[in-house]
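User: Please predict the structure of the protein below. I'd like the answer in structure-token form so I can feed it into my own downstream comparison script.

Assistant: Understood. Taking the following sequence of 88 residues as input:
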Amino acid sequence: MRKIPRPFKMPWGGGMVIEEVSVVSKHHEPTIQLLQFDSGDRVIRFCSYNDGRFSRSPLMIDEKDLRRLGKATTKAKKIRKMISKLSE
């Protein structure tokens, strides 16, 4: 597990990763992160890790792992609340 909270930096600002869920799959570790910028704005980032390192490639996830990642969000109430807005 990666330390939470932990800092992140983007070209347009930084902040903290305040919540994270992931599952280990055959090729990578699909991950959902809740990022809170120093301004207070919150965003969801869908990303992945490879061999413990952040991947800058787009997240690709198969149906089986998507289901597992969705189940993992039950442990992350803030992420689950934001993702639920996708189906509103």
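That's the full token string. The chain is about 20% helix and 40% strand.
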